[in-house]
């Protein structure tokens, strides 16, 4: 019995040192160390070659190298779950023709919420907020549903464009409320009302990068954090 207690304690300490405390507790910061893929992160290719070599773990960063074909490469951790959570990620656009990147909350088999900004191409400088509905996918329908009906996208000067430019994006899922941030500035796509949805109440966290059939995409994620909302 004593050996079992020490084993459990050792596992808890290992998770703490790896940066994975409960998302309902103090939160964590992903450091992209060499054991990154051993900590519950899973590759999800929503569009494109499911066997493509799109991910390259470097020194304190994860690189996305996407081809000149439409590709949506995500990384989701279903083991780190929370109902109310704030996820933030800092990306760097190394070299891209047409590209976007995103953060995800409440990911499950049913779907997730996703905040995406466009950093290269004709939509560069804009953002969208989606929910991904797995049921629609099963019905052979478009699974991505825009959560700000009436406007396909919103443009903002808060997005930094160009090569080697970095952007920090944040997504808060709290109750039925969804809030979004770009470089620490909250965005308000719906005037006089926030974005709300009640389909997904709890789930994992994640992030991703997208290309759009118009040239290669090289984007790095250099920081990712998750914590309980305090704002």
General description of the model:
With 231 residues, this protein is mainly beta. It has one domain: Exo-inulinase, domain 1 (Jelly Rolls, Sandwich), CATH 2.60.120.560. The protein is built from two helices and 17 strands. It is globular, with a radius of gyration of 18 Å. The protein starts with a helix and ends with a strand. This is DUF1080 domain-containing protein. Residues 1-23 form the signal peptide. Keywords: Signal.
Helix content: under 10%
- Report the top-level CATH class: Mainly Beta
Total DSSP E strands:
17
The CATH architecture:
Sandwich
Judging from the principal axes of the Cα atoms, what is the shape? globular
Q: What is the name of the CATH superfamily?
A: Exo-inulinase, domain 1
- Our count of helices gives 2
What is the N-to-C succession of helices and strands?
HEEEEEEEEEHEEEEEEEE
* Biggest beta sheet attributes: 9 strands, antiparallel
- The residue ranges in which pLDDT falls below 50 over 5 or more consecutive positions are 2-24
What is the beta-strand fraction? over 45%
Rg result: 18 Å
Signal peptide: 1-23
Protein name: DUF1080 domain-containing protein
Keywords: Signal
